[in-house]
Known about the structure:
By secondary structure, this protein is α/β, with parallel strands linked by helices. The protein is built from twelve helices and ten strands.
Amino acid sequence: MDKAKTKKTVGIIVDIAMYGLLLAQMLYVFTGNTVHEVLGIAFFVCLVVHIFFKRKWYATLFNGTKKPVPRRIFNISTVLLMLCCITLMISSMGVSRLIFPWFRALGSSDLHKYLATAVLALSVFHGGMRGYIRAKKKKKAGIFIALGTIAAASVGLALVPYLNRHFKLVDISLNETVDGEKVQLSEKPLVVYFTRVGNTDFDEDVDAVSGASLLLADGELMGSNQLLAEMIKNAAGCETKAITVTGKKYPSSYGSTVSVSLKELRKDARPEIEPIDISGYNSVILVYPLWCGTVPMPVATFLESCDLSGKRLYLVATQGSSGFGSSTRDIRKMAKGADVEEVMSIYCDDIPYSMERLVKWLKEAFN
């Protein structure tokens, strides 16, 4: 085999490997963090090899302005793909917990997730356009490109969150997870949290497969938001109180809980909860999950049943999508007279690793 054929064969193998590695990265729910980071390094090594093989073509990328429309679309997709890959590489280092734990630039799991989805979708589009340029049956090729790109985007935006909620098992050592720097605060806030544990009639054989809500702490079922409350308690000695419904509990199944929460939201329900006395505190840290893009209705009950006027209310939201949703706006309406401040929105995967962020914020906010 001559040198040109060898180079072409290696190039094809590298390209296939990149697609395979991207898909494997999307299945981190099953591979775990260590394998995820190692495969990430492998992907970027393959990308460097790919660019090296195509270096002469890249040098002519911006030459000429009268190229056919498909070629121009292909070139634009190439530029976008390279920009996303570079940003993804920086983001990957930022969220690394094994290989680059010291690197913090673009260290957002939300951003990392969406960048990975963009790279996968653009890669499929990029490869499809290359085939389209050479294809004889343009219409059929165009349909395949559209369907492939939509399918690739769906993997990151729909399939991965679904797998994360229904198949991911989180198992931690409680002492190791909440252990960290101690903070002396000038004023200690009350930490109020809502979580599924204590508010759900779990089946006897339930396991912690909902990464956004549940985990195993030393083999015992624990709510993710309770873990965050324990982190703050351990760091600053704050008192914690759980929002607990007194009526009918939520169902064991995650999907059924979503259905119930949707019904409550549509009815603007206010489930009864055990009273929480906040009178001795000037500030409250509220830790809550995003349900249907806003606060769970028992949290709404808490906010409207307590006198929060003149108090500072700090928000820590946990979620499997992004941001605070509409929760901040809704909370400001419910917590009359409170000074409401967004603290952090924590992606479900990052919950067990949030101690350092919480300590840093506590230092800045209360000292």
